[in-house]
Amino acid sequence: MKAVEVKDLVKDYGNFRAINGISFEVNEGEVFGLIGPNGAGKTTALRTIATLLQITSGSITVFDYELPKEAGEVRKIISYLPEEAGAYKNLTGKEYLNFIAKFFGEGDKFQNIVQRGLEIANLGERINDKVDTYSKGMIRRLLVGRALMVNPRLAILDEPTSGLDVVNAQEVRRIINSSVEAGVAVLLSSHNMLEVELLCHRIALINDGIIVASGTAAELKNEYDAVNIEEAFVKAIK
Amino acid sequence: MIGNIIKKEFKELFTLSTLIPIVVIAIVFAFVGQTIGNIGETMEEKPVVGIVDMDDGDFSDIAMAVLIEKAEVIYDGNDAEEGLEEVREENGVALLVIPENFSQNIYANHPGEIEIYWIMKGAGMMDSISSGVVEGLIQAVNQGISTKLIRQDSYFDPALVLNPTTRVETTFFKGKEIEGLSSSQLGNMLSSQSIVIPIVVMMLIIMAGASVIASMGMEKENKTLETLLTLPVRRSHIVIGKIVGSALVGMIMAAIYMIGFSRYMSSFQISDINLADFGLALGTQDYLLVGISLFTALLAGLSLCIVLGTFAKNYRSAQTLIFPITALAMISVFITMFKDFDTIPAILRVLVFAIPFSHPMMAMRALMMDNYSLVIGGVAYTAVFTVIMIVVAVRIFNSDRLLTGSVQKRAAWGKLGWGFRR
Q1: Which burial class, exposed, middle or buried, applies to B206 when counting CB atoms under 10 A from its CB (0-12, 13-18, 19+)?
Q2: Which of A48, B72, B196, B384 has the highest CB neighbour count under 10 A?
Q3: Which residues does chain B have within 8 Å of residue A42's beta carbon, measured at their own beta carbons?
């Protein structure tokens, strides 16, 4: 079963076409990366798959659930981490994880989810402090913990390491990899080409709402005779 | 340099979105003021009264002369029933009856009795102005009689000279006959319903409304909205959860505010008349209806606020979005405070009925007068209003608008191209 199947997806904002007929698939246990510059349509694509935006035309299925008809079912099996996400400032880190976990389970299941969130966030005693007092890196780790603690079948991560220092970014990448090993499918976006090369099994290069090339990192470098994905991308959009 | 900063500040603060609500509210208030009328003009107008003189003596002649000079007398006869009917039909303020032996009593050193039958139309502040003018007429009658008494050679009790008449009053108000009270006394007694209750409701709506709008603004500012919308929870539950949570916060805040305000108001309380003595007390079911009216109005207000809250870009813009709610609540307060629902022009009546917050403001007074249809109709209307607003809010929550803003902005994104994140 495919984790995600996107066919001829078009998304318009008024008169502006943000996505112009993109198609791609994400397999179970795979990390699929959408890469492109700011404004290419990455976030729009992720938001649409995450049930936040309506589809103008085309189709999206997530583990055979069709959007927008079965959006409620899709929300039960996905977890979305927006690029500029935040947490409720008046809650402590642990209260925030509790709040989210209550939507996914009760009793032991709830406890297990929270425990997993605490482990992924790895904030030590600071988890009992208010989110308002956290650094940007701490908030991002809390949010990654929030996104992955619920054992989603599909994690949609928009610029997962955005704004993080090298150490924190590496830690977040490690967490993502361990989730994938546990069977989670990941769809992520990034304009950090190095990160994409390190994390993703397959990549789609997106520009001006169109996928200009896709494949593994090796395939893309080979196709465009490039030394890295960045060079491949530049050659692909010329 | 400073001019540059002033120009920037002005441009940032003086926007169409800040200007439009102010202009709309100014127009609405001007319209309301124009429609309700002018206190000064009302006070200068001669009050419409009927007179029944059954005495035909020296002092009743003085009273008649004063009344005919200073009031618009629409009935001058000997039949009180007929006079009362006439005053009612002509939208008059009162029927004054001077009974037999009025002059004889005064000559006998006893105050003359004047029977006053008040036709009270409403319990708002503006509604009692005409009766206040009639009160002034009675004073003028007293002065006329006192002058004559002083000029008489005979000995009169000084107390009689100072107060030559007494009044026996009956007030007719919305089908009720209330003996022993003038319309202004009744108006004063109902003033707590005219002032305190509308202000309580207004504060409750504003406090709770501000909470729900701020909650929407904070969801956007703190970047928590997208996460919330992708959780496995129905959008209607998010909307209802926000409404109920804010209602609780608003009620606590309003309760704290009202403890102080009721203390303040009690310092002005001068009436020691018990409403129950005049059949105006509310029963358990009446209080239940008032509670239901308040609850539905609160839900209606909050559901309207959550729709407005979807327009909030951040916490700051959320603060300005409460303005329309405040204005609507203030319109309801001012109209219900100054005028009774039954005495305002039809167009204002429609406006007041359409604003859901008006209903609990009017409920207590209406129930005292057994006007159940207004209260139950109001509850039904606010319930329907709430359902419509919740449906609208859920539709907005299910659309792109919550995350992407207005259509115009979306179009603008196209022009910005690569430089703008989607």
Answers
A1: buried
A2: A48
A3: 422
**Of A170, A172, A228, A175, nearest in space to A203 by CA:** A228
Closest CB from A40, A50, A54 relative to B400: A54
What are the angstrom distances between the C-alpha of B393 and each of A186, A194, B243, B306?
A: 32, 43, 11, 7
B46-188 under CATH 3.30.750.80, yes or no: no
Average pLDDT, chain B: 81
Task: List C-alpha distances in Å: B159 to A177, B135, B156, B162, B169.
Answer: 102, 20, 8, 5, 21
Q: Which residues of B touch A209 (CB under 8 A)?
A: none
By DSSP bridging, strand A154-158 and strand B72-77 are: unpaired
Structure tokens at B409: 């902005």
A47 touching B, CB under 8 A? yes
| B77-130 pLDDT tens trace | 888 888 888 888 888 888 999 998 888 888 888 899 999 998 887 777 667 666
pTM, to two decimals = 0.76
Helical packing angle, B197-221 and B323-338, nearest 10°: 180
Contact: B422, A78; criterion CB under 8 Å: no
Distance of CA B327 to the CA centre of its chain: 14
Smallest CA–CA distance from B219 into chain A, residue: A88
| Greater model confidence, A233 or A186 | A186
Distance to chain A for B233, nearest Cα, Å: 7
Q: Residue B417: closest CA among chain A residues belongs to which residue?
A: A39
Of A47, A75, A88, the CB nearest to B231: A75
Angstrom distance (rounded) from CA B169 to CA B182: 6
B408, closest residue in chain A (CA to CA): A14
Provide the 8-state DSSP code for B46. Answer: P
The beta-strand segments (E) located in A102-161 are 154-158
Chain B within 8 Å of A69 (Cβ-Cβ)? Answer: no
A40–B418: do the CB atoms touch at under 8 Å?
Answer: yes
Residue A115 host element (H or E): helix A107-121
Per-domain residue ranges of chain A = 2-237
ipTM: 0.91
- Alpha-carbon separation of residue A5 from A24, B43, B413 (angstroms): 6, 78, 27
Choices 3.10.50.30, 3.10.20.30, 3.30.200.20, 3.40.50.300: CATH for A2-237? 3.40.50.300
Give the HSE-up count for residue A190: Cα atoms under 13 Å, Cβ half-sphere.
25
